[in-house]
Amino acid sequence: MTGSSVFLKALFVVLVHLSVHADCKGHLQTSPAEIAAECANAIAVGRPTCLHNGTLNAYNTSHPQSCSACTCPDGWTGSDCALCSSLASCPVRNGTDGKPMNATNCTSGEILPTANGEDLRALGKQYRCECGLGDDFYSKFVCNQLPESKYHLSVAFDPAMPNDTSRLVANIVNFAGQPSQNWQPSAHYKYSYPEVWDARFTNCEWLQDKCEACPIPGACPWTSDDQCQFLKCSGEVQVNCPPIGVTPCPEYTPTGCGLSPDISADGNHLKWWQHHCAEEAIPSNSPMQLMCFLPPDSADPQYSCWFSQTEQGNAGVGMRCRVGDCLYENAKPLDPPSDGDHKDFPYLAYVFLGIIAVCILILMAAGALYLNAFFIQSPGTPFLSPPLKPLLPLRDPQDQGVLVYWACI
Question: Domain of life of the organism in this record (predicted)?
Answer without folding.
Answer: Eukaryota
